[in-house]
Amino acid sequence: MNYELKELLDEKYRQYNNPSFIATDPIQIPHSFTMREDIEISGFLASTIAWGNRKMIISNAKKMMDIMGNRPYDFVMEFDAKNAADMPPFVHRTFQNQDFQFCVASLQNIYKNHGGLKNVFESAFRKHGNIHDTLFDFRKVFFECDFPLRTGKHIADVSKGAAAKRLNMYLMWLCRKDKSNVHFGIWDIPSSSLMLPLDTHTAATGRALGLITRKANDWKTVEEITAELRKFDPDDPVKYDFALFGMGINEKFNATVQL
Description:
mainly alpha; 11 helices
């Protein structure tokens, strides 16, 4: 084990894993709710649009909650596709009205016919015992209703090698828990099984630290870096997302930096 690297990552984890992180991250959206279903739904929608500028992500996620009357679970359960045209317009980059409306309709199906998001994810994990196949099963359930082809690109398909950054981030939010209370820990999927949410920042930092050898940012790379992080903490490898992301976005730590 590279103890010098572990010491660095542990130090950065302690630095960035604190409640102040919430105010600058899209995780603040589910933190504005207390009912589990509201947390699940708001977190799913916020994570689904979590690409691009973080301020824009947060602003647009708040707009989604406003459209839903800040009652996401009630809005989902009361949604009538016949009245979808009456919803205020919503756009986040390539995620638009049609995508938002389908997500609400799909979530309604999940809560009415599959026991909710918690049950869908936990049941899939109990069946497979790994996150890759859990995400594959979730996507099948999510798109079991008729859906616009354009919406398919917004939910990662791990069967095609997608890194699934936003879905892995969502699972980290809902499943992981520690004393900082940044994450919720309200789903029964063990932290030891979670996969790192790989984005440009964590990937660049991971390569600079020698945690990644592959060039692509795909599922195999997610497996590679998560396996390396498990050497440092087998019970909670994705805790180092705080360190890698914080170093990448705040300290501009990249492939030009040598440890």
